From TrEMBL:
Lineage summary: Eukaryota, Viridiplantae, Streptophyta, Embryophyta, Tracheophyta
InterPro entries recorded: Probable_transposase_24 (IPR004252)
Protein name: Transposase
Pfam families reported in the protein's UniProt record: Transposase_24
Biased composition (Basic and acidic residues): 239-251
Annotated organism of origin: Deinandra increscens subsp. villosa
Amino acid sequence: MGRKWRAWKGYLKELAYDPSLTIDEIVAKEINKDSRVHETQFKELVTRWFTPKFQTTCDVKRLSRSKMKEPHVSGTKSFARRAHEMAVNNNGVYPTRGEMYVTTRTRKDGTIVNDEASHVVASLEKVANASTNTSGNQDDFTKDAYSKVKGPEKSGYIRLVGRMPATKNKTSGPSSASLETIEQLKGAVSDLVMIIQNHIPNANLSSVLSNLNVQVPGIGSSPHNNSLSVNRISPSSRSHNDNGQESRLDN
């Protein structure tokens, strides 16, 4: 619903926005042409178009689009919808990412959008013609023609397939931040274990520590008959205060 609403507002702006007209003139002009336009809501939208903040945002996005090296010519039609249309016209066979790139960079007159995109198209055709694995799995985005020409995906995002949940890179290891967090957690667990050992000397923590791969001096060398359960760590556990007197943790 959110995407539909944004698309509708974008359609209205493309159709009605004219900086040479006033807000009231734009509203009056559009509501007379399209009965779907609600006058009050549309006036609020047009008023927003003329705000300095909105104008600045548009300028930034316009500049960003101008820096695109290989812009597509699909307009507002999503890549997923374009791929579905191509599959319908091809007996249900969906296009490869290479075919999607060629289609979305080719104008209606058959020309490629620019020289850089033309080089990519030529490379894709060369790789596709040289490939001997014609029956390969198209879902393997790490070995298709597009990945060989444009390189691997970044941040789990898969290009040219439309909107979809971001994939997780299963081949890469944990980040340095994750490793640091793990070490901090191990240290915290070690401190907690030492506190528990001081209050519950007979607790068997060796199995727990072996699963967590945590090393605590003096623990795990000798087995105990009883094991530690979560219920053992409760507000009723006793501790000693600064005066050496026994106190309850729930006080």
